[in-house]
Amino acid sequence: MKYRDLHINVKVRLVEAFLVNLVGNMIYPFMAIYFADRYGPAITGFLFVANILIGLFFGLYGGVLADRFGRRKMLRIAETGRFLSLLIIGLANSPWFDSPLTTLVLVLILNGFGGLAFPAMQAMIVDCTTPEDRKFVYSLDYWTLNTSLLIGGMVGAFFFRSYLFELFSAAALISFGSLCLLLFVIRETHFPKSKSAQEKAGEPAPKSQGGGYGMVLRDRTFMLYILAVALLLSLEQIFFNYAGVRLSGEMTTQSLFSWGDQDAKVDGVGMFGILRTENALFVVLLAGVATRWFKRFRDTGVLMAGILVTMIGFAVLAVSNSPWLLLVCMLIATLGELMHTPIRQSYLAEIIPPANRGTYMAMTGLNPVIAQLIGAGSITAGAVVSSWVISIATLVIGLASAGLFGKTLLNLPKRKQAMEAEEALQQGAST
């Protein structure tokens, strides 16, 4: 499988996702600094909680709309909203007009439109791929995400303080390019029939259709999968939250390496920055190699091994202050992510009923929220327990995630048979 062999929508989706994530990484990591300077750290914390909740709410709403009205329509509406939001944010930070309040409101709106687009984007990938090529597509998607993180982070770090207007203007221009792709290139993949049209045609409504989020919450296999992924993602969030605070407070300035008379030293804050960069850089460099290497093994084995490797890497990162051990363990944790990420996303596509892909994909928005809450909680826990306790907790969370994945996969064959039988019934009723 090569990029040129993919469906045109998947090609556009990968490019568009890179552009959207590039804009996000140019802006979002630095908005905490922006609002803390203007409103103080306490209010900024509440703003970021509100931002997460708004993204989740609009994501849940967007999932229903993507199933009801189609993927392309929702993507066009969302990207139009993002473009206009970025344009106004740029004007609110221009040489002619400076309004932090306008920026605040538009950042919340911008995040809402991002949540609105998420289910449609994810559902479209499943619509346009087969089980055989999904691992390749999700590997590319993971690669583009980390590439945008590297590039966007460097651009944002350079321009944010002194060139805010230029930064937001560039972000709006990139968003406009993404909108053009959605307006003129992408094709619709989901053509839902209204209830009256189904009744007129004499077609029964799918069992999986019409239950909304109550139906999804009652889907035990899917909810087990959601919890498994959330716990797995929380391992990285514990590192990003707790380990950063711990390293800044515990790690003394140490020598990283010597070259002649030069001695490169690093403290805890610097080490944390190096580890984050290492994580993104190795994903960019090794994603393609890892995909080709691990495809020769059984998916289930690679998934479980990836979870265990990730768990061990982050457990050591939670307790060690040795620079080179930290670097090695970040490499190990990143390798685990490369192993499990494409496979767990591919399994997700197999357990979602086709008639409600948007709704189900919207519920996956719970994954980062739960993971972020666990990550934030690790900071509070780290204030009262030792780093060894956090490390052991990391191992326990990783094992719990592996156990939940195992239980989900045991239910998969029976679930696939039921969905295939339902789809055959629908096709028979429509002929």
Automatic annotation (TrEMBL):
It is a multi-pass membrane protein. InterPro entries: MFS (IPR011701), MFS_dom (IPR020846), MFS_trans_sf (IPR036259), MFS_Transporters (IPR050171), Sugar_transporter_CS (IPR005829). It is found in: Cell membrane. The keyword Cell inner membrane does not apply. Keywords: Cell membrane, Membrane, Transmembrane, Transmembrane helix, Transport. The chain crosses the membrane at residues 12-36, 42-65, 103-121, 142-161, 167-186, 222-243, 301-318, 324-340, 360-379, 385-406. Residues 1-416 form the Major facilitator superfamily (MFS) profile domain. It comes from the Bacteria. This is MFS transporter. It comes from Tumebacillus amylolyticus.
